[in-house]
Design goal:
The chain has about 210 residues and is an alpha+beta fold. The chain has a single domain, classed as Gcn5-related N-acetyltransferase (GNAT) (Aminopeptidase, 3-Layer(aba) Sandwich). It is about 20% helix and about 35% strand. Strands 1-2-3-4-5-6-9-7 form an eight-stranded mixed β-sheet. It is globular, with a radius of gyration of 18 Å. The two termini are about 25 Å apart. The N terminus is likely disordered. This is Acetyltransferase (GNAT) family protein. InterPro entries: Acyl_CoA_acyltransferase (IPR016181), GNAT_dom (IPR000182). It comes from Paraprevotella clara. One of its GO terms (molecular function) is acyltransferase activity, transferring groups other than amino-acyl groups.
């Protein structure tokens, strides 16, 4: 676990700036404890009002979870999922950010940015991924552009699979971000530009 410190603006007419201490908890989602699952689902509900209690990451995606923890609560989350894809017959090991969210009471505090940076640093150090891919809504695009590290791929389309009514980033008006990691991905960089990539995800899953 890593401690992070976030400076917040003064409250009211105070001349002091509060410094909030929290830590980032990292674990494999497939081995999540019941306590952590309750904390995570409480956060998910507060962000998206999701009451389905479905697993947020498919077990085959071997997600790594990054949680910002303050006073025994999860106040922000980012998952890193992994999956094997094929483009023009060539295999690539992809990863991506998933279910990134911050508790409504803690937004615009730098916590989400710090968490995404830590998750991305993990991806860069991992050494097993070829390419990073994920989508985000139009309103959240500036958040990732401000963080940097990831590149907005204007003409890249991601699709869940070839099934009928599969999720597609262009149909859903989502922006795609990419991160070319391995020499192979950089060699075939054109695959990740003006292309439609079939992720061949399990039904109903997207990134």
């Amino acid at each position: 676990m890593n401690d992070i410190f976030v400076l917040l603006p003064p409250l009211g007419h105070s001349k002091f700036i509060r410094c909030r201490k929290m830590h980032i908890k990292v674990f494999k989602y497939n081995h999540i404890s019941e306590t952590d699952k309750r904390l995570l689902y409480d956060l998910i509900y507060r962000v998206w009002e999701d009451t389905t209690n479905l697993e947020i990451h498919h077990k085959d995606m071997d997600a790594t979870s990054f949680c910002a923890v303050e006073e025994n609560r999860f106040i922000a989350y980012a998952g890193v999922v992994s999956w094997d894809i094929r483009i023009h017959g060539r295999p690539f090991r992809m990863c991506g950010l998933s279910c990134v969210c911050t508790h409504p009471e803690h937004r615009s505090s730098g916590i989400g940015s710090a968490l995404v940076k830590q998750a991305t640093e993990y991806i860069l150090r991992n050494g097993t991924f070829d390419v990073g891919l994920f989508t985000c809504s139009q309103e959240n695009t500036s958040f990732y552009e401000h963080i940097g590290l990831w590149e907005k791929a204007k003409n890249l389309v991601l699709m869940e699979s070839h099934r009928a009514n599969a999720y597609r980033s262009d149909f859903m008006h989502l922006n795609v971000f990419k991160l070319l990691l391995s020499p192979k991905a950089k060699q075939y960089a054109e695959y990740f530009e003006n292309s439609i990539i079939n992720l061949n995800f399990p039904q109903g899953r997207f990134i």
